[in-house]
Structures are given as C-alpha cells and as structure tokens.
Design a protein that fits this description.
The chain is mainly alpha-helical and 130 residues long. The chain has a single domain (2-128), classed as Arc Repressor Mutant, subunit A, CATH 1.10.10.10. Helix content is 61%, strand content 9%. It has six helices and three strands. It has helices at residues 6-19, 24-31, 38-51, 63-75, 98-116, 118-128, and strands at 36-37, 79-83, 92-96. A three-stranded antiparallel β-sheet has the order 1-3-2. The mean pLDDT is 89. InterPro entries: HTH_HxlR, WH-like_DNA-bd_sf, WH_DNA-bd_sf.
C-alpha cells in the first residue's frame, strides 16, 4: 500500500526539482511575455525586486547567478537560448520552450493557492518563529 504513491511522489519531486532555485520563479515570470536578451532579463528581474523592496531577495541578481540559473533551466528543457545572426554581432535571447510555457501554466493553480492562503501562511510562520 505504501508503495502505491511512489510514482506520484517521484513526479512531484521531479517537478519541484525543476522549480527549485532562488531565482527560477523570477526567470520564468520574466520570460513569460516573450524572449529577452541576457541584459534585459537581468535588469527586468532586478527592477521587479527593487520595486517590491527586496522582499524576496537580500541583494540583486548577479550575472553569474543568472548564467547558472539559465544553464540549469536550459539543461532541463525549460528555457532555450536563441542567437540571431547579425552583421556585427550575434545577439542572444532566452525564451521559454513549449515545456517551459506548459510548466508556467501548470503552476498557476499553486500560485492562486498561495495567494488565497497568504495570511494563514504568514500567521503560521510567525507562530513558529525563524
């Protein structure tokens, strides 16, 4: 009986592993509207964090950490790197793959759940302490 949940549990762990990472949600949300080059992606993420008062992160996203995050998301098939041939240089853009777009659509109910239960979550965390 206990083994019946193994495939479900493994699938949940696989999904959570893809979403794991301090900056993964920010990258996914920033790429949702469409492709961005590296610098625009970095600036977009940091601008949102700055507007929110750095509630979710202590310091700005660095180029190194964004590179690592994008590499992992590319490895997992969530983000793809596209270069556009140009006479002088090849601009590089990052965009969600179809699987990445599907992932983003799939987590929307989870986001709604978190919004619906935000007060209870905060209350429970305060009772529990750091």
């Amino acid at each position: 009986m206990a083994g019946e949940n193994v495939p479900y549990r493994q699938s949940l762990l696989d999904a959570m592993a893809v979403l794991n990472g301090q900056w993964v949600p920010a990258v996914l949300a920033s790429l949702a509207p469409g492709p961005l080059n590296f610098t625009d992606l970095l600036n977009a993420i940091n601008a949102v964090e700055e507007r929110s008062g750095w509630v979710n992160h202590v310091r700005p996203l660095t180029r190194k950490v964004l590179t690592e995050t994008l590499s992992r998301l590319q490895r997992d098939g969530i983000v793809q790197r596209q270069s556009t041939p140009d006479a002088l240089f090849q601009p590089v853009y990052y965009e969600l793959t179809p699987m990445g777009s599907s992932l983003l659509r799939s987590v929307r109910p989870l986001i709604k759940w978190a919004q619906d239960h935000q007060a209870e979550l905060e209350s429970a965390r305060q009772r529990r302490g750091p």
